[in-house]
Automatic annotation (TrEMBL):
GO molecular function terms noted in the UniProt entry: DNA binding; DNA-binding transcription factor activity
Superkingdom of source: Bacteria
Family matches, as InterPro entries: DNA-bd_dom_put_sf (IPR009061), MerR-type_HTH_dom (IPR000551), MerR_fam (IPR047057)
PROSITE patterns registered for this protein in UniProt: HTH_MERR_2 (PS50937)
Protein name: Transcriptional regulator, MerR family
Organism: Xylanibacter ruminicola (strain ATCC 19189 / DSM 19721 / CIP 105475 / JCM 8958 / 23) (Prevotella ruminicola)
């Protein structure tokens, strides 16, 4: 399933917005926060409302790529991100570029079909 990364740039995103971007449940994001120590969104007020920033979205994108797209178990994804973050980042970036290219090609094809 393609990620919904067509978002307007904001300073903070709610857990609901982030869950929708990545087609995840909010509970999945909360679980990932317990399993990946580097994923720590800012919290505000006494209610501890999560406020995700762009850097958090980048972390979630990497985790999502490993766990949901490539099928890694949580422990394997955590180890991979700990040991080879740069390689994982490059792979995730390449995947995102391919997804965007595929979408562009589909739009182009629909325009050609309409002729």
């Amino acid at each position: 399933m393609a990620l919904n990364l067509n978002r307007r740039l904001k300073t903070y995103y709610s857990i609901r917005e982030v869950a929708e971007m990545f087609d995840l449940n909010e509970s999945t994001l909360r679980y990932w926060e317990t399993e990946f120590p580097f994923l720590k969104p800012k919290t505000s007020g006494t209610a501890k409302i999560r406020q995700y920033q762009e850097k958090d979205l980048d972390q979630i994108r990497l985790i999502h790529n490993l766990v949901k797209v490539r099928g890694f178990k949580i422990a394997a994804a955590r180890e991979m991100l700990t040991k080879n973050r740069q390689g994982v980042q490059k792979t995730a970036d390449a995947l995102q570029n391919l997804i965007a290219l595929r979408e562009d090609l589909q739009v182009l094809k629909s325009h050609l079909d309409a002729l």
